[in-house]
Design brief:
Length: 124
């Protein structure tokens, strides 16, 4: 991840932090608290462990996510949102709502149904 040295707008910084196919989904999956790498991998369809680890490393370096390592064998690591990450989660939840509205407007609710994501029913 590369954050620009010279920015014309603070949104450029945030864009640099969250750009990438999986970062907003990782932030969303961490909304309920500490989560293991294996659980994140199960919860995010089609993400590879390599890509998950890369994005987690970048989110940690930008102060969005942090991790707790439990000593002993086997080593156990849990990831969680930092204060900055919880603030960013508010924006991600709004993005989720906009995505749901968009899908409902176009009659693309099969995915929402399959994943158990609630949505407003179209009247008519």
């Amino acid at each position: 991840m590369m954050i620009r040295g010279q920015c014309t707008c603070p949104l450029e910084v945030v864009h640099d932090i969250i750009k990438g196919k999986w970062k907003t989904m990782i932030i969303y999956q961490l909304k309920d608290g500490n989560t293991s790498l294996a659980q994140l991998e199960r919860d995010i369809d089609q993400i590879t462990q390599k890509m998950l680890l890369q994005h987690l490393k970048e989110l940690i370096s930008s102060g969005i996510v942090d991790k707790i390592k439990t000593e002993g064998y086997p080593l156990h690591v849990e990831y969680f949102l930092t204060e900055r990450g919880r603030r960013l989660l508010d924006a991600v939840l709004i993005m989720q709502e906009i995505g749901i509205d968009y899908m409902v407007e176009r009659g693309q609710t099969e995915l929402l149904d399959r994943k158990g994501i609630p949505y407003p029913q179209k009247s008519g």
